[in-house]
From TrEMBL:
<dbReference type="InterPro" id="IPR018389">
    <property type="entry name" value="DctP_fam"/>
</dbReference>
<protein>
    <submittedName>
        <fullName>TRAP-type C4-dicarboxylate transport system substrate-binding protein</fullName>
    </submittedName>
</protein>
<comment type="similarity">
    <text>Belongs to the bacterial solute-binding protein 7 family.</text>
</comment>
<dbReference type="Pfam" id="PF03480">
    <property type="entry name" value="DctP"/>
</dbReference>
<keyword id="KW-0813">Transport</keyword>
<dbReference type="GO" id="GO:0055085">
    <property type="term" value="P:transmembrane transport"/>
</dbReference>
<keyword id="KW-0732">Signal</keyword>
<dbReference type="InterPro" id="IPR038404">
    <property type="entry name" value="TRAP_DctP_sf"/>
</dbReference>
<feature type="signal peptide">
    <location>
        <begin position="1"/>
        <end position="25"/>
    </location>
</feature>
Amino acid sequence: MRKTPSRYLAWALGFALIATGAACSGSSPEPDTVENPGPVSLKIGTADDDSRPGGLAIVEFVEQVRTLSGGKILVYPVWEAAGEGVQQWDQVVARMLKDKELDLAMIPSRTWDTEGVTTLRALNAPFLVTSDALADKIVTSKDMSDQLMAGLDKAGATGLALMPESLRHPFGFQHALLTPTAFKGQGIRTAKSDLGDATIRALGGKPSDANGDAFDAGIRDGTLAGAETGFVLSDALPVPGIAAANVTFSTKVNTLVANSGMLAGLSAENREILQKAAAATREWVLAHRITEAANAAAYCNRGGKIVKATAADLQALDRAMQPVYAELDQDASTKAMMDRIRQLKSSVPVPATGVGSPC
C-alpha cells in the first residue's frame, strides 16, 4: 500500500520500529512448551503501513498482549507484509497467515470471500452497513461477531475480534459518481473482493485493484475514473477527487485473526490472553476512532470536494444492486444475517458527526 507519514505518538512509533526490526531479523514464533520457558514470540502481519488505522490498532494490541502476559508473550508487527505495489494485497497477507508465515494478522473482512469464507459477506453487502454507529453495534455484539467470523476456519484462521475502521465512498477523479450512469464503463479502483467487484460491475463499472505506480498511471491515462475508499484513507489518493458523502458502499471492518494451528498449540492461559487483548484493542479502537465528519473536513482541507446524491440517485443505486442481493440471498445464513443487520439498522441513529458535509 502507498506509504504516508506516520501519525503515531513518539512512543508508539519507536515501539513499532523496534518490533518491526525484530520481526524482519528472522525471529520466529517460539513453541509454547515447558522446555521453552522464555517469552512466546509471535508475528502479526498487515498490508498497511504504520500510519493506517489498522496499524494503530496493531500497536495497541501488541502493548495489550505484553501487559496482560507480563512480557511472556511478545508480538512483532510486520508492516506492508504483502510488499509494495502488489495486487490483491490483503489476500497475500491472508495466505501468509494460512501458510504459517505469520501467526496473527489484521485483514479487512471483505478480503475473505476470495478465500472461501462466506460468513462475513453480510457485513460487506452493498449499501447495508452505512454508519460507524451501526458497525459499532455489530462488532460489540458477541453473538453477531462470532457468527460473522465462524467461517474463517475454512481459510485456516480463527477470529479474535472485529475492528471497525471507516465508511467507504466513491471518489471520482473525472466526475462525481452518484448514479449508475456515472459508473457505466468506468474503471474503479477497489480492493480485491468478490463481493466488492460484483458491486462495481452491477453499477456498470470495471473493478480494478491497481496499486502503486499502476494506480497513478490509471488516473493519468483516464482508465481509472474513480476509487472506492474512505475519508480517513483519502490522503493516500494520488490526486484529490469528488467524494459522494452519502453514497456509502459499506463500512470497512478489519478482522484480527490468528493462524488456527498456532492458536491451538498455545496453552489455554495464553489463548485467553490473546482473546482479552483483542477485546481490549477493539474497545480502544472504538474510543479513539476519528469521526466521519472530521475525516471529511480534513479531506476538504487537502483540496478535495464533497457532494451528495439526491434521493432519486440513491434509489437508482439501490435498484442496481438487485442482482447482487439476489445472489447473496441464495445463502440462507447470509440472508439471515443481513436481515438481522437491517433490523438493527432501523434502531441505530446516526449522529451528526457520522456524516461528511459537502465542500
